[in-house]
Amino acid sequence: MGTNSYAKKGDILSRFLLEREKDPGCFGNKYLRDIILNFVIAGRDTTAGTLSWFLHVLCRDQRIQDKIAREVREATSTGDRQDAGGVEEFTARLTEDAIGSMHYLHAALTETLRLYPAVPVDVKCCFSDDTLPDGHTVRRGDMVNYQPFAMGRMKFLWGDDAEEFRPERWLDGDGVFVPESPYKFTAFQAGPRICLGKEFAYRQMKIFAATLLYLFRFEMWDRGSTVGYRPMLTLKMDGPLYVRASPRRSIGN
């Protein structure tokens, strides 16, 4: 495939291949392989898994689901009674300003990540001797493990309702999203190693979630069913998530 073919494509891999033709020494096969592997692991499984857990918790609380759907409708409304329309009409109104004004949706996704972090257990390796903020000494080569899954359920961090799914904990009195310290909410890590794709992931999830909730209402296929998890590199559901989707003709339906 030649340069012109790569230039016509808008995907990230094609952009890297185009740069490699300009400067073959900077983008070898191993480098490109590592880039693609990183996108597959960090940019696909994590986002897809979070959206699955997001739908699960919304099926358990229709009040929250309807509140998000109402916010999405208000954020994308043009004042025309014909706003309803289909997916193409809706996505045309899903602008950056509209997405940015969806604070409750942002809070609900963040609350999902608090309880169901995409990476449930993480580890860091010390490159040099250091002292942690609590005074604990670590040596070069030591491994430090931390568990975002358990941390998101600690009452001394999040209060007595730590195990409750409550998006409101992320909003101020005016309904504006207020982030927590990344050292408390570690879903995207913190400091120099904070996830480079954090904002992209939020935008991707908000677009996907807003479109689905604008068009459909979701409920568990079997209301008595339970959903387990498999603690792997990413937090996967232990089996498929069976939901029923019905057209959302109005908020509350």
From TrEMBL:
GO terms for molecular function: heme binding; iron ion binding; monooxygenase activity; oxidoreductase activity, acting on paired donors, with incorporation or reduction of molecular oxygen. InterPro entries: Cyt_P450 (IPR001128), Cyt_P450_E_grp-I (IPR002401), Cyt_P450_sf (IPR036396). It comes from the Eukaryota. The keyword Zinc does not apply. Keywords: Heme, Iron, Membrane, Metal-binding, Oxidoreductase, Transmembrane, Transmembrane helix. Gene3D superfamilies: Cytochrome P450. Heme binds at C195. Its cofactor is heme. Pfam families: p450. Belongs to the cytochrome P450 family. This is Cytochrome P450. It comes from Triticum aestivum.
